[in-house]
């Protein structure tokens, strides 16, 4: 299932980037769980698709509604056991300030039954790779 798992995560990210968020969230299980980065201000985990979605929808106030179009996929790799490492460049600007942000982030997704059931978020590539067990 590894190719299918990677393809599912890629599809979710492509939908997300293009602004088709309802379709992207449709690829997540209703009872999914999301784990924010270490030292993130809003403590997690976030339980359920609706709660996780609310967290990301709140970013619209900071970065503007089109912030997802600034995401660039750097790497997608199969980790086995339904896990997929996604590395992104996150380069939006502040909605009010216009101050650019350019950061590389990592996410580890767990896929089960054709849906994303878990996501772990990391504020840098090194932390994501370490958690994934890859160099």
What do you see in this structure?
The protein is α+β, with helices and mostly antiparallel strands and 135 residues long. It has a single domain, classed as Nuclear Transport Factor 2, Chain: A. 32% of the residues lie in helices and 34% in strands. It contains 5 helices and 6 strands; from the N terminus they run ααββααββββα. A 6-stranded mixed sheet has the order 2-1-6-5-4-3, with helices on both faces. The longest helix has 16 residues, at 2-17. The chain is globular. The two termini are 23 Å apart. The model has no long low-confidence stretch (mean pLDDT 85).
Count of helical regions: 5
Helix content: 25-40%
Following the backbone from N to C, one meets helices and strands in this order, namely HHEEHHEEEEH
The CATH topology name reads Nuclear Transport Factor 2, Chain: A
Classify the secondary structure makeup into a structural class: alpha+beta
CATH architecture tag: Roll
Radius of gyration: 14 Å
The average pLDDT score comes to: 85
Beta-strand content bin: 25-35%
- Main-sheet strand order equals 2-1-6-5-4-3
* Name of the CATH class: Alpha Beta
Shape call: globular
Span of the ends, CA to CA: 23 Å
Instruction: Report the count of strand segments.
Output: 6
User: How many structural domains in the coordinates?
Assistant: 1
Low-confidence stretches: none
Sheet with the most strands, sense and barrel status:
6 strands, mixed
């Amino acid at each position: 299932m590894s190719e299918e798992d990677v393809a599912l995560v890629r599809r979710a990210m492509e939908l997300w980037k293009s602004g088709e968020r309802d379709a992207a969230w449709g690829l997540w299980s209703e009872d999914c769980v999301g784990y924010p980065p270490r030292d993130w201000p809003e403590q997690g985990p976030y339980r359920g698709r609706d709660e996780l979605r609310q967290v990301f929808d709140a970013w619209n106030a900071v970065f503007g509604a089109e912030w997802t179009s600034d995401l660039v996929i750097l790497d997608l790799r199969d980790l086995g056991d339904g896990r997929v490492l996604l590395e992104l460049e996150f380069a939006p600007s502040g909605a009010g300030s216009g101050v650019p942000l350019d950061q590389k982030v990592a996410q580890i997704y767990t896929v089960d039954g054709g849906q994303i059931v878990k996501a772990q978020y990391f504020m840098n590539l090194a932390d994501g790779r370490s958690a994934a067990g890859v160099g």
